[in-house]
Amino acid sequence: DDKEIVAIYKSGTQQYFIDQGDGFKAAAEELGYTAKIINVELDANLAISAVSDAIASGAKGIGLTAPDQALGPAVARSADEAGVLLVATDDPIMKEDGSPVPFVGFDGVAMGTKVGERAGELLKESGWLDGARYGVLSVEVQTLSVCNDRTDAAKEQVIAAGASADSIVQVSYDGTADTSLAATGPVLTANPGVDKWVVFACNDEGVLGANNALKNAGFNPDDVIAVGLGAYEACRPWKEGIPSGFKAALYISGKDVGDAAARTLINSIETGEDLPLKTVANTTIVGPDNYADYMSCD
Amino acid sequence: MSSAILDVQGVGKSFPGVKALSNVSMKVFPGEVVAFVGENGAGKSTFLKILCGDYTLDEGKVALDGTEVSHASPLEARNAGFRLVRQEPEIVPHISAAENIFIGEYPRRASGRVDHAKMRQITTEMLERYGFVGVLDIDALGRTLSPAQQHIVEILRALKDGVKVVAFDEPTASLTTEEADRLFALIRQLRKEGLGIIYVSHRLHEVMEISDRVVVLKDGVQTGDLRIEETTEQDIVNLMVGRELAHGYSRDEVSTPEVVLEVENLSSRWHRDISFQIRAGEIVGFAGLVGAGRTELAKVLFGEFEKSGGTVKICGEVKTIRSPADAIAANIGFAPENRKAEGLILVRSVIENASMAVYSALARMGVLRTSAMIEKVSPFIQKLEIKTPSLEQEVGKLSGGNQQKVVLARWLAAAPRLLILDEPTRAVDVGAKAEIYRLIDDLSKQGLAIMMISSEMPELLSMSDRIIVMRDGQISEPIEKQDATEEAIVNLALGTKAA
Amino acid sequence: MPTEDKKLSITENATLQIASPKSSALKRFTNFVGAENLSLIIALIIMVALIATQTEFFFSARNLMNIGQNMAVVGLIAVGMTLVIVSAGLDISVGSIAGCASVVCALTVTQMGTVTGGVFAGMGIGIILGLINATIISILRVNPVVATLATFSAFRGVAFLIAPDGRPVGVLDPNLAWLGSGRLFQTESFPGLPVAFLLLVLVAVVAHFVMTSTVFGRSIYSMGGNPVAARLAGINLTRMRYAIYAVSGALSGLAGVLVTARTSSGQPASGTQGLELEAITAVFLGGALMAGGKGTIVGSMLAVLLLATLSNGMNLLGIPTFYQLVAKGLLLVLAVAIGQWRLARSEKQQAKLAAAGK
Amino acid sequence: MPTEDKKLSITENATLQIASPKSSALKRFTNFVGAENLSLIIALIIMVALIATQTEFFFSARNLMNIGQNMAVVGLIAVGMTLVIVSAGLDISVGSIAGCASVVCALTVTQMGTVTGGVFAGMGIGIILGLINATIISILRVNPVVATLATFSAFRGVAFLIAPDGRPVGVLDPNLAWLGSGRLFQTESFPGLPVAFLLLVLVAVVAHFVMTSTVFGRSIYSMGGNPVAARLAGINLTRMRYAIYAVSGALSGLAGVLVTARTSSGQPASGTQGLELEAITAVFLGGALMAGGKGTIVGSMLAVLLLATLSNGMNLLGIPTFYQLVAKGLLLVLAVAIGQWRLARSEKQQAKLAAAGK
Ligand SMILES: Nc1ncnc2c1ncn2[C@@H]1O[C@H](COP(=O)(O)OP(=O)(O)OP(=O)(O)O)[C@@H](O)[C@H]1O
Ligand SMILES: Nc1ncnc2c1ncn2[C@@H]1O[C@H](COP(=O)(O)OP(=O)(O)OP(=O)(O)O)[C@@H](O)[C@H]1O
Ligand SMILES: [Mg+2]
Ligand SMILES: [Mg+2]
């Protein structure tokens, strides 16, 4: 099986990357290749090991979502040495000389920007900007650079939309819904003057946790504008027709990104052409009414 | 006489590298005390551990009061009525002495709750009934108990309801003579109550005094089963050792004028105003009852416990000793009485345990060759006849007496200027005792000063050049060898005036 | 063999002294929380004072309820962990067990529509996994650390395998949600008591009773303090281990159920975010010993409260993660150090008394 | 007090029997790896056989080098952890120390441009943090678990505070990269030996010598087995602890340097998280006792190799994460269980021999 490609994901236990893996595998098999998926659980050191393992296993091409962009030079080097094709998925990375590694997907800054834009629009529509006592919850994994990219970008957009900078409150969690819930509670307590909240986070879990905290604190869904990232948690209340803080969410088709990554790699392996520098997979902001056109919710 | 309450037939047991018991048979009748003797490592404790369900026998049969209990679990053995007072007390450190006695079978309220009050009450009653009043604080944590106190806990554990046969594995080893007498009274009381009693000891005069019959083991083989009135200590020794032994030990005074240890007005949490000297080549015996503070005195001198006043001079110069490390640097050695808790690294090998105190001495720039260790300590291991399948054997798997010998080997090998021995021959057999006395004697001839804490009168009387008696943290005037008598010592220890 | 050195052993002597039953009201209180744990209370008071001076919201009824609610998950696990550690064992797999239970509970509720069923399913799987731990330790004779490190990994895998495609399972059942975020005795003036917190209190009280006044509980102390003594006294160590790890499993399972209830979705990864370290921290902070045989439910619960209050306070004050990490470390050291210092001091006094002729 | 029960203590006895110096070649080998560790080798062989039948790439020189390279980071930490655990301590802060060292090394290299400087800075900070651990344990008398759980959190925070805005620090210095991914003795036919691996081998050999044939090493076994007896034999426990935790810190620091070298960036957390559990797993898998006093460098290194081979093999075979987690758990249990079973058996045989009169 010398016709093999490998995908390495920074967080392979998350639904989004599971989807991406499925897309990657499916496309590869369709084109007569075998595909392997390696998960490195946000561990930079494991990522390096995984790349070398992939190379050792005779892979012709590697798709990598790095747990940290600083890894770029190290992986690019070992891939070049071994003459193996490398594409970065989701998070762009650079080579030593600062030139970008060919990229497939939709990077964190762009994600944050889209989320922020939508949150901004909803904020304007809500009319809270004229005199309402509103706040903005930015739920962040402050120890993870790829997460900060998203929330930072989202904050910019919300401010651009007219929110005041000091209305923004940071909440720190570890990526799971439970810690987001635990951390948001006290923040709400500390801001008793605020009776309307805008919410965004690094992922849907973060937003979900914050929503539950708001519910516990007795906020009613109309007083919450929560924009999810991933949409897999957001879509549930929509599906059930239950009112919730989720007003919109950025849907990223992991399947599409994985599919695109596999096709780009295989194409270059077969034809020997250089990899295209940027292949952007499509992503959309979805809401209660239109999510079903893009995704199945389970 | 009625039928045997305990009937053991052809029991055998082996451990890796050791055949501990082969074809041992014995009977115990109600109201009979059977002594069980043999050299260190002969298999006595193994035999008893089989009876109490700790070890499983390889071959043979055990019947208790008619019912077979050959493969009983510890619980079954207990319930069947066999109780063992172990040579090495097993104490639970962070619960009270009273609770230690009741683990496994607590008194309960109707609600099923453990009845702590009842537990303390029963304990107090037992302490009175068996004559241990005031020796044991029943609320003290297990870890703070002295070896003597630990033994009392073991005894009370054994004597709880339903006991038919009780075995004492070297009960007097950690007791003073006074305590031992109390124990004998207890044993006689139990005999009257019709219990079967097995009594293991290396102190043959005790055996002659207390038992009706004596069973002798040698290397796991039964070499005798005699009625006590038909035998003598010498016969027993011959059966145990297989050769004649010089009885007792006498040494000639070798002390020189040079003063090695000089203690002036030392006081501490336990002691008030203690002053004495030990000269090179001199052996000074320390007598006293449990709680008198001898071990504490040793530990204060060795820097383990804090002294609150006074000075300690070694070879004329004042030493400030704040830790055992300081003490060893000042050329002091200390073989503790409590070998399991304070003496040995049970999970490590014989050779390591024996050489611990000479590591630095043997090392070249911190590098320590095993060969060097063996060379240094194996002579002592041989002279002390330490019974072990190999030098690599875990010390925890040696017999009690052999463990004690390992502690001694460590300090005999280190040969410091001042050597403090706390109960040096505790649990050691007669043959080995003589050898240990000889080695101590040799060391003193080499000019060591030796401080020997002991609760064994014969040992104190035969080995010491002078004897200091301790009572309530204070010491008596030293008694010179010539006028040292058992009576004089006991009187000083108890604080009663000599007649 | 004795696993601490002189200093410690002596200080413990002192504890004993203090705890000895000359009962004045204070003495009885000291007795109940245990002298060592007084230092946790002191640390708690200092910390609360610090936080309260910075924000008036700390003492708001709602915030206090919040703390109660957030300590439930770790608290439940810490109760089970106390039994395990006192028995001289360790259970690193608790977080993974919680993960499995969270998923199983979510699936049961969504597919069978029964919340009670979900709760019992969650605890059930917890018990099963706990029994697996006990089997590996007792029958295969694997050291508890390795055994539960192994199942820490294996059970986590299982959690993802149970969940369809390893995805979180959403549950929007309001009754389940009530378990996680509901309140009892609510009035317009009083925000009510969180159900999750009451659940923890209930469990802790029962556990305290078991540890102090039942044969099972006392036997845990014996086997932890000296397995040989325990075995020779007829305590069946194997059976004890099965019971202990089953309890730990059941409570981890219950914690997993709470996670599902709080987050309205079964999170396979929920447990894997260091819940085990959090619980282990609490138990040792509460006065347990690595060597076993020592530790109390009261101590562990105080420690959980201390940790929950700390993170709540820091979130109230909006302290960034990095500083939160440092602060947590300092608190842990401080809390224990205070205790040691107090014990050392009272031991000195004891010595003086003794020297002055007892 | 004894922290294992009879069964264990007796089975262990068998080791000594086998290890007792009747030397044939096999005996000497057994003697070196220790009977318990033979089971690790057996497990390794079984596993390698399984993997090799599935993929021809496993035995490719390149892949073997790979395994070597990938085990370096955990390996270095496991060496230090062996000293700590044998001394009856525990060091949960190793991962956080590595994180600090990784950042410090990166900053030194980028700002002063000296790679050697970076390496020493990394190890230096490691030593300092190790000494802090020792101080908390010895002077403040905090139990090692709590102490290092505390610093586990605190040092992590420090790592982020050192790193500008808590973000990873990129370093492109080729000499540093050489340390992480460079090879020695490379020929066109032979891919060469990874520098990182050689570093680990060097450290392990020295550590093995220290543990087996120096006063320091022997004293670690003594103090771990019975601190009281060790102190009464003149061992200064406090000084020992400072030395032991400093070594553990230094090696964690070196591991952090390697992470920087491999990832071409100073990582405050990513890459060093969870290292503590990996290392602890290895040490106990290598035959150490929770109670202290037992454990060998050889055993720990075999365990590290076993774990590294497993994850490499599973990556080669493209086994999905969830199954990888389960497989890892099974391997751990299997490896130890085999050992226990073999020891129980050989102990029976030994006894039979003795019964038959040797
Ligand atoms: N658990 C064990 N493992 C291996 N060998 C053992 C074990 N227990 C005892 N032995 C060996 O069995 C033999 C008999 O030991 P035992 O303790 O019965 O002797 P003993 O007669 O009680 O001696 P002592 O008078 O010194 O107590 C000794 O050689 C001892 O080394
Ligand atoms: N508070 C205590 N904590 C721990 N051990 C104690 C304490 N008090 C006494 N001991 C121990 O009790 C034992 C007997 O006490 P002490 O040393 O006072 O009597 P002794 O003169 O040594 O008698 P013996 O040596 O016959 O036991 C010693 O081993 C001592 O270490
Ligand atoms: Mg014996
Ligand atoms: Mg004494």
Automatic annotation (TrEMBL), chain B:
Q: Which GO terms describe its molecular function?
A: ATP binding; ATP hydrolysis activity
Q: Which residues form the ABC transporter domain?
A: 6-244, 254-497
Q: Which SUPFAM superfamilies match?
A: P-loop containing nucleoside triphosphate hydrolases
Query: What keywords is this UniProt entry annotated with?
Result: ATP-binding, Cell membrane, Membrane, Nucleotide-binding, Repeat, Sugar transport, Translocase, Transport
Residues passing through the membrane, by range: none
Q: State the CDD domains in the record.
A: ABC_Carb_Monos_I, ABC_Carb_Monos_II
Q: Which SMART domains match?
A: AAA
Question: In the UniProt record, does the keyword Signal occur?
Answer: no
* Entry keyword annotation includes Repeat: yes
- The stretch of residues making up the signal peptide is none
| InterPro entries cross-referenced by the UniProt entry | AAA+_ATPase, ABC_carbohydrate_import_ATPase, ABC_transporter-like_ATP-bd, ABC_transporter-like_CS, P-loop_NTPase
Gene3D superfamilies in the cross-refs:
P-loop containing nucleotide triphosphate hydrolases
**The name this protein goes by in its record:** Sugar ABC transporter ATP-binding protein
Tell me the organism: Halocynthiibacter halioticoli
